[in-house]
Design a protein that fits this description.
46% helix; alpha/beta; 2 domains; DJ-1/PfpI; 301 residues; Arc Repressor Mutant, subunit A; elongated; 6-stranded mixed sheet; AraC family transcriptional regulator; HTH_AraC; transcription; 13 helices; transcription regulation
Amino acid sequence: MTRVVFLLVPQLQLLDLAGPAQVFSTAADLGLGYEIGYVAEQEDVTTAQGLPLRAATEWPPLSAGDLVVVPGWRESTVRGDGGPSPAALERLAAHHAAGGTVASICTGAAALGRAGLLDGRRCTTHHDAQDELAARHPGAYVVRDVLYVVDGRVVTSAGIASGIDLALHLVAGRHGPAVAARIAREMVVYARRNGDEQQTSAMLRHRAHLVDAVHHVQDLIDARFTTRLRLSELAAASGVSERTLTRHFTEATGLTPLRYQQELRLERAEHLISHGATAEAAARAVGFQDARMLRRLRART
């Protein structure tokens, strides 16, 4: 039996907790021997989303095979004083010193840093908090724009939903990728992402603008990026000329509509290749006739 203990703090992000908890709960339902517990300084803990939770105030006995997980809290950076108390931080450090594994989701990495567990280690956190984490813990090597990092028995992940990826990775390491894939299917998770995949997809990276017509065209490309899309079709849908669309799209995103579509195709192809597909199969799956264009795009990036 493996214990997975979640350390809850006030204003914790609900999905930071619920995602990984669902993974280990599903693993327990499959008979894989997981026992889940929740501890906090006080019995009642309010999440950032306003949902009250109840946790134990006494820590269960832990062994070297057990896992302690620290979900993140509302503080968007790691500057604030939120998070676990000094006593809880001592518990984290003691569990690791005894051979146990500790993990964090999102800004939960700040707790691991305060417990002295990040010095000399690779780690990550939410992309909005990476600079601050690196400044506060110069002895740590903050890996940017990845989903999760495993450095020995210290495991850190990016923001919110990446906790699901981290938990699936830990299950795969213990029980094999087929079991993790089965849990992902049970959870209706699209795919189990690798740790070195980017925190923000191409669909999100180019949305930091306020041009409605361009957002509308991006929606069309996002939904159909594996098919051939004519510029005239996109311009008609947005109600402007092809030249005007190209100008507005480039000003808003830094890319032409074609380059945006190619970036989506490339990102999806890289994902398929990382999960075992050949370059040829990945190229065809994202809409290329063969792998030549895919190879050119990969070389260019």
